[in-house]
Amino acid sequence: MRDLIRLSSARVQMRNGSSEPLPAVRPIFGTDRLNGPGSFGRDPKGGNQEELMLDDLDRRDRLRLVEFVCSFAWADLEIRPEERVFISRLIRRLELDEDEHLRVQQWLDRPPGLDDLDPTSIPAAHRRFFVEAIEGLISADGEVSDEERESFEIFKQLLVD
After folding, report:
1. How far apart are CA 29 and CA 93, in angstroms?
2. How much is the pTM?
3. Backbone torsion region of residue 77, taken as left when φ is above 0, otherwise alpha when ψ lies between -120 and 50, otherwise beta
4. Which tens digits make up the pLDDT trace of 82-141?
5. Domains, the chain, ordered by start
6. Are 123 and 86 in contact (CB under 8 A)?
7. Which residues contact 17 (CB under 8 A, 6 or more apart)?
8. Separation CA 156–CA 119 (nearest Å)
């Protein structure tokens, strides 16, 4: 049986009653940023960090970002409705075209192949954005499974090494 983790404020609540601090990365692209405007993710000078980062992503990297996010949605072998909503908002926010949207729908029906998902191939300038988008996805439903947590930790380690 899988052990689920519930997110609450700044701590992760585990099924056995213990809790751990949330990961150090504070997402600028979490679910609240996808739901609408707010101060979260705003640069102190008034700019939007998310939009600045999006401008740096070319079409290929935008699609690759969604491919990684979809692969994490499959980490616990199911895609929950909240994760589908997160991905739907993400693809709208990334302004993917119709062909790219269809490709994402395929990844929601069947997980993307792992052969093309090499975290070390993500440009250093975009790594934080990928980490934060994936963190937003895995926390979208308020629960983080062991599989999601372990995959996310490995992903972050691969980006540092």
Report:
1. 10
2. 0.70
3. left
4. 999 999 999 999 999 999 999 999 999 999 988 778 998 898 989 998 999 999 999 998
5. 4-160 (1.10.3680)
6. no
7. none
8. 8
